[in-house]
Amino acid sequence: MEWMSVDLGNCPLIRALDVVGKQWTIIVLREAFNGVRRFEDFQHHLGLSRSVLSRRLAEMVTDGLLERVPYRPDGERERHEYQPTDKAWALYPVMVGLMQWGDRYLADGDAEPVRLVDRHSGKAVVAALVTDDTATCAPADVGVRPGRSFKTVPAAPSDHGACGDGR
Amino acid sequence: MEWMSVDLGNCPLIRALDVVGKQWTIIVLREAFNGVRRFEDFQHHLGLSRSVLSRRLAEMVTDGLLERVPYRPDGERERHEYQPTDKAWALYPVMVGLMQWGDRYLADGDAEPVRLVDRHSGKAVVAALVTDDTATCAPADVGVRPGRSFKTVPAAPSDHGACGDGR
């Protein structure tokens, strides 16, 4: 099979990039994977205007990456939160791979704000290629821990954002 | 550890996206990972103008993803080919993960133009999260084979582009 003769018209990589090729899609997924669900929490942690964030979340709902789910806080009007779909969670290894690549090659002395561990064994978790009979870590198996260059900012509007407990 | 209090200023994911967030970077890497090295072969397979391709390849050399290496075909003037660096190969699992996600969720009845196998065992290769003591497949272990929706186009200018023999 000669690569140069492969027709690229149905390349799944190009299809994937059409959906997740926007940088902010990956950034919003990072928040959702780490347990952020509420509009105000996305807004606070990402520092976006309401209108920009609304548009981005709506696009991700359209693309099937987030699901808008109603909830009603005690004594308040109904609100909505944004839950990552299975389609979004399937991108978790890609996001981890990008994060670990950034830490390895671009950190500039400031590497590893967070590190990932297997909740059961405590071993480090890495994104890699394996044969399909290999034991892998599901998102729910992965815990996020402070890394070597962990830093904090003032607390968020709601205290419902848990780290590494996205699923 | 509360995710909402994590300072995002040194996020390695954002650093990674600053380098590989451009769609065409991933597309050029796809070609390089599949053995394309020569300017004319990139140009033919991607259908780009010389000026656009020159600019893109030069940016990727600056970013440390490609190395420009001289060679001299018999009886011709010296030319250069573009070899992926170790930094680029470290993105191979990310690219495979994106490709497999596109096949799974966006294929629209046209899934799997190519499939990846372990050259030694013949088993399917997947991008996944694993603990760091797991046996993984290096890029050189991965073979590219025609998949269910494989299609070809007319042969390329040079016959040096091998499929799945990028490393």
What is shown here, in short?
With 167 residues, chain A is of the alpha+beta class. Chain A has six helices and five strands.
Molecular structure report:
The structure is a homodimer of 167-residue chains. Chain A has 167 residues and is of the alpha+beta class. Chain A has helices at 12-20, 23-33, 39-46, 50-62, 86-89, 92-105, and strands at 66-71, 79-84, 114-118, 125-131, 142-146. At the A-B interface, helix 1, helix 2, helix 3, helix 6 and strand 3 of A face helix 1, helix 2, helix 3, helix 6 and strand 3 of B.
Biggest beta sheet summary of chain A: 2 strands, antiparallel
- pLDDT averaged residue by residue of chain A: 89
What class would the helix/strand composition of chain A place it in?
alpha+beta
Helical content of chain A (DSSP H or I, runs of 4+): 25-40%
Strand content of chain A: 15-25%
Major β-sheet strand ordering of chain A: 1-2
Which chains have the largest interface? A-B, 97 and 98 residues
Q: How far is it from the N-terminal to the C-terminal residue of chain A, by CA? A: 41 Å
Encode the helix/strand succession of chain A as letters: HHHHEEHHEEE
Question: How would you describe the shape of chain A?
Answer: globular
